[in-house]
Prior knowledge:
The complex is a heterodimer. Chain A is 54% helix and 14% strand. Chain A contains 11 helices and 8 strands. Chain A has an 8-stranded mixed beta sheet with strand order 7-6-5-4-2-3-1-8. Mean pLDDT of chain A is 78; it is low at 1-5. By secondary structure, chain B is of the alpha/beta class. The chains are: A alpha/beta, B alpha/beta. The interface between A and B is large, with 87 and 89 residues. β8 (189-192) of chain A pairs antiparallel with β12 of chain B, so a sheet runs across the interface.
Amino acid sequence: MANPPMIRSFLQVAATEEVAQPLRVVQIEGLAVLKIIKHCKENAPALVTGQLLGLDVGSVLEVTNCFPFPIREEDEEIEADGANYQLEMMRCLREVNVDNNTVGWYQSTLYGSFQTVELIETFMNYQENIKRCVCIIYDPARSNQGVLALKAMKLTDSFMELYRNNNFTGEKLREKNLSWVDIFEEIPIKVSNSALISAFMTELEADTPVTQCDYDRLQLSTKPQMERNVEFLIDCMDDLSMEQQKFQFYYRNLSRQQAQQQAWLQKRRAENNARKAAGDEPLPEEDPSNPIFKPVPEPSRLESFLVTNQISNYCNQINGVAGQSFSRLYLMKALQES
Amino acid sequence: MTGGEQTVLQFHPSSTSVSAKVHPVVIFNICDCYVRRPDQAERVIGTLLGSVSSDGTVDIRNSYAVPHNESSDQVALDIDYHHNMLLSHQKVNPKEVIVGWYSTGFGVSGGSALIHEFYSREVPNPVHLTVDTGFTNGEASIKAFVSVNLTLGDRQLAAQFHEIPLDLRMIEAERVGFDILKSTMVDKLPSDLEGMEASMERLLSLIDDVYKYVDDVVEQRVAPDNKIGRFIADTVASIPKISPGAFDKLINDNIQDHLLLLYLSSLTRAQLGLAEKLNTAAQIL
């Protein structure tokens, strides 16, 4: 029996592989996790970034290594230096057989305040060059509570399309059915280690009944975190109300303009009627030169969407911290009673 | 009695460093480099970065591999690569300087003296770290050495590697959680509450252990140990004495504070949800 499908040209294979699977999981090596933590922690509370290297395998994005960026300066010359640094680092790492494929970047954050326009811009920049990229966000402040605050984020496809066209008017958003929930997408993280590292860790570190993690988790004082969270929440609320004011202003302007247009139209019609009665040509009912016909620019909704995202993020964090402290408080109570 | 100075055969303990501390990220990096070593290479070597504290303790915080070629009697190190990488690393963290070098394999090998000499020119008293990735003795041995010169007067006769105490600082790794770093694959990062649960379970089992021990001692099944007894006494005493009324008030106040915050955040979320619904309702119009 002939078996023609077995023989496929390279081109055909390439064409079939082209169907991109959606990104499901980010698989990160323990080495990369430790490097990110080291870099972010050393520079905290300053926010730092770095590049992630790895492989793109089907629906899994493997992050096998990373390197830090120097703290960014505004100076042009130093910026060019930064690009050189990046190339140099990539070249050097390739020489020792590290995966030489950029898959995204990482950055540190303070209590989860990362949803900014800059992040979106950076993401779009990366997206231009790499089809599938991811942003890993690490929160050193939250990690002190004994949580590994590592998150992998990407922008959703529908949002990226909208962002490319820079269309954030109410109409477009309605058309796409896009709300603030659909901007960022969190991707589950897997951690993998090579067998060698696993062997070393098991050998070097016997099972201790208590770890530093437990101490951090059972820390009773949560006031500073709560305070910071609420503080940020209040800031966000202010921002949101500012955005709303902008919007109200826009609507007021719009309705005023529409009223003016109506008034003008009526006047023109009355005039036309008068002219018709007199047997003259009617005047056109539109006058583009008139300033009242100039459309009022609609403010972008992007900012308010981002602020909304932030708010919900802080709410989640408050819930998380409160939930933890409830368990701690009841634990304390039980201890005191026994 | 020592004779004329010129004829004394003596060791120059050229080092002031008494011990070394290694951060887990260095071990991870070395293992990763070893896994990714070029075909037919026996071992990988590389540079260690970190700082030397005033009391001579070497804090090894970072590392990078340096490509090299090794034959029976000579070692060729890619010095250009080494310098480029050093420059790049210093851009990010100027505080980290060269403190030594590492090599995989068991203990010190033949070519090591040559490489050590090279690093001695870069920095005084480099530390040589060996990581036994082959598990030669059936155990993971990580050792640190410094070089000690054997001199006859002014002439240098030989160099000898002396092992120095090594402290594996795992605090960083502890914070991440060994569970994540030990196994080859972790499917999901533990969330806040799951971590909390695990911690509490561990605490509970520890308390159970203490109960069991105390019961055993009381019933004379186990010989009492004063030290353990004192530890337990200290632990029990560390719970602050507060009158039940004051304690209840404290706990209740705290719980109420948190409930209020929880309520506020839920309210905010409800508002956000409502706003979104209103937005979608506006779409239909």
